[in-house]
From TrEMBL:
Classification via InterPro entries: 4-hydroxybenzoyl-CoA_TE, HotDog_dom_sf
UniProtKB keywords: Hydrolase
Gene Ontology MF terms in the entry: fatty acyl-CoA hydrolase activity
PANTHER family: 4-HYDROXYBENZOYL-COA THIOESTERASE FAMILY MEMBER, NOVEL THIOESTERASE SUPERFAMILY DOMAIN AND SAPOSIN A-TYPE DOMAIN CONTAINING PROTEIN (0610012H03RIK)
Hydrolase as UniProt keyword: yes
Lineage of the species this protein comes from: Bacteria, Pseudomonadati, Pseudomonadota, Gammaproteobacteria, Pseudomonadales
Protein name per the record: Thioesterase
Record family assignment: Belongs to the 4-hydroxybenzoyl-CoA thioesterase family.
Highest taxon above the source species: Bacteria
Gene3D superfamilies the UniProt entry points to: Hotdog Thioesterase
The keyword Hydrolase is assigned to this record: yes
Amino acid sequence: MSNKPERPCRETFRHFTRMPTRWGDHDSYGHVNNVVYYSYCESAITAFLVEQGTLEIASSPVIGLIVNSSCTYFAPICFPDQVSVGMRISHLGNSSARYELALFRNDEHEAAAAAHIVYVYVDRASNTSVPIPQTVRTALARITD
């Protein structure tokens, strides 16, 4: 029996962000380095929040900080592939949200990798946990399971 999660498919995600791989993303083995997958995920989350008008990177008084993350790899992504990051919220708490993400290579149906990232929302000035602002909650509710 394997503890490896099932390989997600595109239809299980509610929002997608498409981005190219970059020449510098790959390692000496010829595929995108594992740490870059996290960068794709964080970029997709940030782009979604900015597009929704819920995040001003330099000035929002409440920001999300990553407190937990993991990634399972199923297949390599290589340069010059396009990556579609599928995103959904599996848990929307008072001050935290668990983002479920999958990275799809080009137009493939099954994910090359699956990740989760937990954000805790904090007051930028005091760095203390606060309730998720209503505007953010509304945007996240649109992609909640």
